[in-house]
Design brief:
By secondary structure, the chain is an alpha+beta fold. The protein contains 4 helices and 14 strands. About 25% of the residues lie in helices and about 35% in strands. The two termini are about 15 Å apart.
């Protein structure tokens, strides 16, 4: 039995080593997450607003450890037959909005990488983030990324992972594949979106308007996975030594 357990640890550790060595995941750490702001709204110019960015615990429960929380109001008063409303929380190339100013995309990426301002994600295969719904209603979320489009001569590429529904007190790790995204040396927008079918009658839909409470946290870095993998191998080795010594 002990041999079987040790073998499982060893195999898991060995499997993680090449994964960690080859993984090139971009994620947003706490410093970067605290810089995000309300970059766009749909419907535009509605009563939607981001009211809180920080690390305090939200009213409906505890946010994830090491995460940054966001609260805001989302509504759709346009009566256009489209009850879905959303907010983009992130950064753009200019760092300004109709309601004030915020960090630029270069500020956010630089904070995540610890390099100082940069618009480049060259060398990364994916953009990942874990989002937690700390609320009493279902909310939908997705990641977004934009390259180009700081003047009319540049190609514009928008990518997102599609909407994912998260039930109250649940989380989801979202993923965007960057391997086919052009112009990663010039990322102009980055962040995530929160949305929902406002007041459509379902018991799980947000009312109109309604406040969302979500938390965002970085995914484990490749270095962390590498340490975990080597730790498992070390535990297997120690256990094996003790096993044979006892025998």
């Amino acid at each position: 039995m002990k041999k079987t357990i040790l073998a499982i640890f060893l195999v898991l550790g060995l499997m993680m080593l090449p994964m960690a060595a080859s993984a090139t995941t971009f994620t947003l750490n706490e410093d970067a997450l605290l810089l995000l702001w309300d970059v766009f709204e749909n419907p535009e110019n509605d009563t939607t607003s981001l009211t809180y960015v920080g690390t305090e615990t939200f009213p409906y429960g505890a946010s994830m450890g090491g995460s940054v929380g966001y609260a805001g109001a989302i509504s759709d008063s346009s009566n256009d037959g489209e009850p879905f409303a959303q907010m983009g929380i992130g950064a753009n190339f200019w760092g300004t909005s109709s309601t004030g100013s915020g960090a630029t995309t270069a500020d956010v990426i630089g904070a995540a990488l610890g390099t100082g301002p940069t618009n480049s994600l060259v060398g990364f295969d994916s953009y990942e983030l874990t989002l937690y719904n700390d609320n009493d209603d279902d909310w939908m979320v997705n990641l977004f990324l934009n390259t180009g489009y700081t003047d009319w001569s540049e190609p514009n590429t928008w990518v997102d992972n599609g909407w994912v529904a998260i039930s109250p007190n649940s989380s989801a790790t979202l993923f965007i594949d960057l391997t086919s995204v052009p112009n990663l040396d010039h990322v102009t927008n980055i962040g995530f979106q929160v949305g929902g079918n406002m007041g459509t009658g379902s018991s799980t839909d947000p009312s109109n308007p309604d406040f969302f409470h979500v938390s965002a946290a970085p995914v484990p870095e490749p270095a962390t996975m590498l340490l975990l993998g080597t730790g498992l191998i070390g535990l297997a080795g120690i256990g094996r030594k003790k096993f044979f010594k006892k025998k």
